[in-house]
Amino acid sequence: MSARVLDGKWVRDQILSELRPRVERITRDHRPPGLAVVLVGNDPASEIYVRNKIRTCGELGIYSEKLALPDTITTGDLLGMIEGLNQRNEIDGILVQVPLPPHVDKHRILLSVLPDKDVDGFHPVNIGNLVANSSGSKACTPAGIMELLRRYEIPIAGKNAVVVGRSDIVGKPMAMLLLHQNATVTICHSKTSNLAEECRRGEILVGAIGKPAFLTTEFIRPGATVIDVGTNRQADGKLIGDVNPDDVKAVAGAYTPVPGGVGPLTIAMLMANTVQAAEHHLCCG
Ligand code: GUN
């Protein structure tokens, strides 16, 4: 039997349609929610992501601003720009697209965004909130995956969840969110011994390593729910995930396809974090 497809576009559309009345209410009572997106340099993938973020803001009625800056910008100048955005009342959310050029001090930049405006959930205050299971913006891709699991009613409590990858953006926050839903969580990475064996214990398996089709049959527990965060561009221009698409179909119980699985969720959760930040600013200053 072929595995069930978990449709990220269906979940995204639900999230966005639930946000629409909230955006309308904020706009009617005050002003539209506002998001500033900071893009440094010309990384083609980042340019596409940023374009899609701005477009989705427009579709929802969120005010957005794109600040496209040259990759020669200094850390000091970038800090100055972010400080300006921190002080503007009509900007509820600030997103600094990563990766940043190597000469820019990423840690100082992410630290400079006001935690209340950090719609990426990258500021150490929000990482602390995540670990403590307190409110605050959560990293968009893992938060979107939790929405997908919830809306497809995939049980998490008591399950073995294996996260492959330990990035600050996906692997680490993903593990924390699964833990808060009472999964037994294993984080695997490039130095893990017996990786396939560890992965096969996963009733929920999250692939976030950035290696095309790396997770094959021997990594997948029969019947598992497999979440593929990979977006690897092949030589022919096609996208392929971190999970082998034929193998996952044959072995898993349910899986997110690439494209059309996790990808659409990230922007939906960015919009959700922006609306949440606007509601917070307008009610509580
Ligand atoms: N680069 C890749 N994913 C993301 C993301 O979710 N937020 C930001 N700011 N940069 C990214």
Explain what this protein looks like in three dimensions.
With 285 residues, this protein is an alpha/beta fold. The chain has two domains: 27-114, Leucine Dehydrogenase, chain A, domain 1 (Rossmann fold), CATH 3.40.50.10860; 140-263, 3-Layer(aba) Sandwich (Rossmann fold). It is built from ten helices and eleven strands. The strands form three sheets. It has a six-stranded parallel beta sheet. A three-stranded parallel beta sheet has the order 3-2-4, sandwiched between helices. Helix 1 (8-29) runs parallel beside helix 10 (263-284) and helix 2 (44-60) crosses helix 10 (263-284). It is globular. The termini are far apart. The mean pLDDT is 97. Bound molecules: guanine. Guanine binds next to strand 4 and helix 6. Guanine binds at residues 95-98, 120, 140-141, 169, 266.
Topology:
Blueprint: E1 4-5, H1 8-29, E2 34-40, H2 44-60, E3 63-69, H3 75-87, E4 93-96, H4 106-112, H5 124-131, H6 140-151, E5 160-164, H7 171-180, E6 184-188, H8 195-200, E7 204-207, E8 225-228, E9 232-233, E10 239-240, H9 245-251, E11 254-255, H10 263-284
Parallel strand pairs: 1-11, 2-3, 2-4, 5-6, 5-7, 7-8, 8-11
Antiparallel strand pairs: 9-10
Helix pairs in contact: 1-10, 2-10, 3-4, 6-7, 6-10
